[in-house]
Design a protein that fits this description.
Elements (H helix, E strand, L loop, with lengths): L19 H12 L3 H14 L4 H14 L2 H14 L5 H12 L3 H14 L4 H25 L5 H11 L61 H17 L3 H5 L13 H13 L4 E13 L3 E12 L3 E13 L2 E9 L1
Antiparallel strand pairs: 1-2, 2-3, 3-4
Length: 333
């Protein structure tokens, strides 16, 4: 049975007298995969701000990552009671219920989210996955019960199951070594690339067919070098706090590890412009696989600002879009 994938989204609520640095630090620790340290910081913060929605929401996310679903459900349920106008806690409740196989409760939570926010795209997407999963189970039960004419049911079940299958990756023949160096093209003479054709021979009668033109073979594209250049440009834009240039390195189909793409982009605007300075350094960049229009890389990222410093290992999936490599997914590993 294929595993359903859902988005767990972040919410940011303005609350007076909030110590932004403490909460930002907890958020940074969580994004770096340091869940226990993040939980400690959040608990310290909640001792002085027990009603803060953002801190409680972050605590729920950390509990999910720690595998304590029961405690996470309590946190998000309490948020739905205190902030019934927010759809995000309902969505995350649905994610947890679905992970436990309770699809009816997941469906109810998503429907509650849509009542508060009828245009909430993430809830619609997740609700579609829930209905597809319920339909798949219903068809499977029909196959188990029905003894005759099962051919059509098998076809339907196959089609639904394909919704949860990931596209297989194609491994390159040669995997890039650590810290790949961008190869600069060698200098070419001024006449390079020009193909000279001999003058046509003089014949008594015109030829029945014209002389075919020679075909110029295009040079092979070094995609590993292009990928490396793209990621270095991404890090440079981040360090320069150039939000537009930074976001231009992401594909339109980019899916954040947690949250919707629109909320993630809004968050990045804040994260890039708020610090007084940002320095991002990359190391040990490896191209793990390349196919026709997809690639996967790993790297070590060192982030530093006036309020926070961290080092983490990342894995990124890239898409080739109109001849340019774009980041389609990134996770800390």
């Amino acid at each position: 049975m294929q595993k359903l994938l859902f988005a767990i989204v972040f919410v940011y609520v303005s609350v007076a007298h909030v110590s932004a640095n403490t909460l930002d630090e907890a958020q940074g620790l969580f994004e770096a995969g340091k869940r226990e340290q993040a939980m400690s910081r959040v608990n310290d913060y909640l001792e002085t701000q027990p009603k803060n929605a953002e801190a409680r929401f972050l605590k729920g996310l950390i509990l999910v990552e720690l595998g304590d679903s029961e405690a996470a459900i309590k946190v998000f349920t309490s948020l739905t009671k205190d902030y019934p106008e927010l759809p995000e806690p309902y969505n995350n409740l649905a994610v947890i219920h679905a992970a436990e196989g309770d699809y009816d409760s997941a469906r109810a939570a998503l429907q509650a989210a849509l009542k508060t926010h009828p245009s909430y795209a993430t809830a619609y997407e997740n609700l579609g996955d829930i209905y597809a999963k319920l339909a798949s189970e219903a068809y499977q039960q029909a196959l188990d019960l029905e003894k005759q004419d099962q051919g059509q049911l098998k076809v339907k079940l196959s089609l639904i199951s394909n919704l949860f299958m990931e596209e297989p990756e194609i491994k390159p023949e040669v995997v890039a070594a650590a810290q790949p160096v961008i190869k600069q093209p060698a200098a070419k003479p001024a006449s390079a690339g020009i193909i000279k054709r001999a003058a046509p021979a003089v014949i008594a009668k015109p030829a029945a067919t014209s002389q075919p033109r020679p075909v110029t073979k295009k040079p092979a594209i070094d995609h590993q070098a292009l990928i490396t250049k793209t990621i270095q440009s991404w890090a440079s834009a981040w360090s320069a706090q150039d939000v537009d240039a930074y976001l231009s390195h992401y594909a339109d189909s980019f899916t954040p590890a947690k949250g919707s793409a629109s909320k993630w982009r809004a968050q990045r605007h804040i994260r890039l412009t708020k610090p007084k300075y940002i320095r991002v350094a990359l190391d040990q960049l490896k191209v793990l696989s390349i196919s026709k229009n997809r690639a996967r890389i790993e790297l070590v990222q060192t982030y530093e600002s006036n309020t926070y410093r961290d080092q983490s290992r990342k894995r990124m999936d890239l898409l080739l879009v109109n001849g340019q490599w774009k980041i389609n997914r990134e996770v800390s590993i």
